[in-house]
Amino acid sequence: MLAARIDRLVPEDKRLLQTASVVGKDVPFALLQAIADLPDEVLRSGLSHLQAAGFLYETGLLPDLEYAFAHALTHEVTYGGLLQTRRRGLHSRIVVAIEATYADRLVEHIERLADHAVRGQDWAKAARYLYQAGQKALARSAGREAVSYLEAALTSIEQLPPEPDLIRTAVDVRLLLRQALRFSGDLERTERYLREAATLAEQIDDAVRRARSVVGLANLRWNQGDLRAATDYALEARGLGQAADEPSIVAHASVVLTFSWHCRGDYVRAEASAHEVLGLAPRVPRGSYYGHLVPPAVAARAYLALTHAERGGFEAAIADGEAALRLAEEASQPFTIGIAAWGLGYVHRLRANFDGAHVLLQRGFDIAKEWKLEWWLANLGWLLGHVEALSGRHEGLIRLREALDRFEVRGFGAHRSLFIVNLGEAYLESGDVRAAQDAGRNALMRARQFGERGYEAWALRLLGDCASLGADVSESDIFYQDAQALAIELGMGPLAAHCHLGLGKPYQRTGQREQAREHLTTATTLYREMDMRFWLERAEAELRSVG
After folding, report:
1. What is the pLDDT of residue 1?
2. How far apart are CA 430 and CA 86, in angstroms?
3. What is the rounded distance in angstroms from the CA atom of residue 83 to the CA atom of residue 127?
4. Residues 277 and 300: beta-carbon distance below 8 Å
5. Residue 170: what are its φ and ψ, rounded to 5°?
6. Calpha distance 337→359 (Å, rounded)
7. Which residues lie closer than 8 Å to 245 by C-beta, 6 or more apart?
8. Is 443 exposed, middle or buried (0-12, 13-18, 19+ CB in 10 A)?
9. Which of 86, 98, 65, 111 minimizes the C-alpha distance to 21?
10. What mean pLDDT do residues 388-409 have?
């Protein structure tokens, strides 16, 4: 029926309606005027006819006069009645018209430019405008939208001869896709694009772009939990960045080194790498995130907070964590707020300030949920569930299992051994000793496989806690002693204190009062020095019961 109504229009009005349909459902008068090839009075008369016939209506007033199709179906039928060659030609002319009409504010019209360039098969312009549309979407944290634009940009690039400038753009698009895919946590596609970027950069002998690709691969391997490969890639990228005098690359490579050294339990190197990042931060232009969505100073501060906390320096940890959160608030980017909330929440959780941790982690989790940030839904969900479980909340275990599902589905590996330890602690808190033991063994095997010595120590302590509930004190003693030896070697103050507390309990239960008193006294001393009040109260209560 619509097609019949359109066919009954006089030829001039039908042609005008078809031309308007190529502009879009919303039709700025300035663009229609630029491509209609009609005198002004004829154009306005034709628009009046189309309004009277119910095809168009006026939606904007001068100076930004605009029309719209009365119904989406009207637009669809009109556009479908055009020959493909005429459509393509009009789309190309619209691109030129937008460039001329809005020359001083093209950014506002990037999406429209990209769409018309694609439909007009002007592949060079399509590639450029789709890339810019992807950048614009990513700047407002619209990750999925950015992926759509950027993958379309690659499709456009494939239609063109492989000139060096175009290959450079192809690399840049893939590097930006690495960032956009962080929202969905799609590590498989990320790896494919990063490997393609590195190969193309080598093809045109572009050392800087190759270094940026290697930084991305380093971070990807860390995300997957392959710490040795992450470290190797990060060291390579840092060397390439130093050779090219690119502080951004050096800073981001050092961020991955900070992540990796921390997870490997090498807190001295983690701290040194974090300080290297902070020293370079003033030379890193805002927004140059090659391989990361997070400014390097925020990531370094967050992990510096974790490193201080694992070593018992909670005052410094909180200072760095709060500094990271302030920087994240200034950046006002959800992914950045995620790492800052996670880092400071981690510190408060380790110190057993459960209320403070819960507020931070819940806020970060809510932001992650709003923006569909799979990485932070998994990692914030893990810590939040652990805090809830240790606080006696039933929903903690449910949240932990949901977070573990996200880890497994997305292939996230970073911190996974510690996550499993914390899941085991939650099981133990609920009274499920067998599940806690299974988690402890799983975490211990994984930590040893990937060289995560700090997480290995936490897993040993969990197994000690499980064994201490049995009749044979010697088994728990072995686990605690092994955990304590690692804790002392790595400088893990809170864990060392927990091991003394753990050793004291079974000795007390089996009547070995002197050994119990010795370990519990040491535990209270360590907790007091680190100002871990929750644990200090528990240790003091145990010590009083020894007499």
Report:
1. 82
2. 70
3. 25
4. yes
5. -60, -40
6. 14
7. none
8. buried
9. 86
10. 95
Q: For the CA atoms of 460, 465, 468, 470, what is the dihedral angle to 10 degrees?
A: -100
Distance CA 266, CA 489 (A): 10
Of 257, 277, 342, 343, which Cα lies nearest the Cα of 308?
A: 343
239-260 burial, b at 16+ Cβ within 10 Å, e below that, comes to ebbeeeebbbbbbbbbbbbbbb
Amino acid identity for residue 56 in this structure: L
d(CA 237, CA 230): 10
* pLDDT over 80 at 286, yes or no: no
Residues 207-260 have pLDDT tens digits of: 999 999 999 999 999 999 999 999 999 999 999 999 999 999 999 999 999 999
Domain ranges of the chain: 1-82, 480-547
Residue type at 57 in one-letter notation? Y
CATH architecture of 1-82: Orthogonal Bundle (1.10)
How many Cα atoms occupy the beta-carbon half-sphere of 130 within 13 Å? 29
Cβ atoms of residues 98 and 31 within 8 Å? yes
pLDDT surpasses 80 at 420 = yes
Rg of the chain over Cα atoms, rounded to whole angstroms, equals 30
CA neighbours closer than 13 Å in the CB half-sphere of residue 520:
23
Rounded Cα gap, residues 227 and 282, in angstroms: 28
Instruction: Please say whether the dihedral angle defined by the alpha carbons of residues 146, 150, 156 and 160, taken in this order, is positive or negative.
Output: positive
pTM (predicted TM-score): 0.91
Alpha helices in 120-226 (DSSP H): 123-139, 143-157, 164-180, 187-203, 207-224
Contact between 334 and 373 (Cβ < 8 Å): yes
| Cα separation, 331 vs 315, whole angstroms | 25
Q: What average pLDDT score do residues 59-88 get?
A: 90
Our measurement of the distance from residue 129's CA atom to the centroid of its chain's CA atoms, rounded to an integer in Å, reads 25
- Residue 251 falls in which region: left (phi positive, over 0), alpha (psi -120 to 50) or beta: alpha
CB 17 within 8 A of CB 55: yes
Report whether pLDDT(471) > 80.
no
C-alpha distances (whole Å) from 480 to each of 435, 488, 535, 538 are 19, 12, 17, 18
First to last CA, the chain: 94
358-379: pLDDT as tens digits = 999 999 999 999 999 999 999 9
In 3D space, the residue among 292, 280, 274 whose CA is nearest the CA of residue 222 turns out to be 292
> What is the sign of the dihedral through the CA atoms of 319, 325, 326 and 327?
positive
292 pLDDT band (50/70/90 cuts)?
low
Phi-psi region of 470 (alpha: psi -120 to 50; beta: other; left: phi over 0): beta
